[in-house]
Specification:
Blueprint (H helix, E strand, L loop, with lengths): L3 H6 L7 E4 L1 H8 L4 H4 L7 H6 L14 E8 L6 E9 L10 E8 L5 E8 L14 E2 L3 E5 L3 E9 L9 E7 L2
Antiparallel strand pairs: 1-5, 2-3, 3-6, 3-7, 4-5, 4-8, 8-9
Keywords: Cell membrane, Membrane
Membrane topology: Single-pass type I membrane protein
Main location: membrane
Length: 172
């Protein structure tokens, strides 16, 4: 298996809900998309999932609920670390394939992204909308800065306005 992402997409064994890295996307796509898109991983639904099942990219999935920003104890008093938590919407949950969490400094160019995918063969029941998901930590946020965090439900349809939730916050 070349990467965790290929294993997930092919329905092979692996984790149920996995963090996907830049290297995983590069291996699956065959090119490095990060020069064009900065540190954020774009979500090319048809490229990653639609080849075997074009219908998978045509379903509407509502954005997540209860997006929260939690500050984590940071040994460095010069910066903050946060973790983002959320619950999936039950609207379209059976078609949910994962989440993309992005963090952007307001008024600046700093941008970070994390991509989380479900196993290809997984279809979530509505009861899973009560489950709380969490990002990996976003460390090193300068004090006194303002940020916007956005959690997108995947796949992102081409024409749909309710696939994400954003929240603004300030570091200490």
């Amino acid at each position: 298996m070349n990467s965790l992402l290929l294993s997930l997409l092919q329905g092979g064994p692996g984790c149920e809900y996995c963090r996907i890295t830049r290297a995983d996307v590069k291996t699956a796509l065959g090119f490095n998309s990060f020069k064009e898109f900065g540190s954020c991983i774009p979500w090319p639904c048809f490229e990653l999932l639609g080849k075997k099942d074009p219908q998978i990219c045509q379903h509407y999935v509502h954005g997540p609920n209860n997006v929260e920003v939690v500050f984590v104890n940071e040994p460095n008093s010069e910066s903050d670390t946060i973790v983002v938590s959320w619950k999936p919407s039950y609207y379209g949950i059976a078609f949910l394939r994962g989440f993309q969490v992005s963090l952007q400094a307001l008024g600046g160019s700093s941008f970070a992204c994390q991509l989380f995918l479900f196993h290809r063969n997984l279809s979530l029941p509505a009861s899973q909308s009560k489950r709380v998901y969490k990002s990996d930590p976003f460390p090193g946020l300068p004090l006194g800065s303002q940020y916007a965090v956005t959690v997108m439900a995947l796949p992102v349809p081409e024409e749909w306005e309710r696939f994400y939730r954003s929240r603004n916050f300030s570091s200490r």
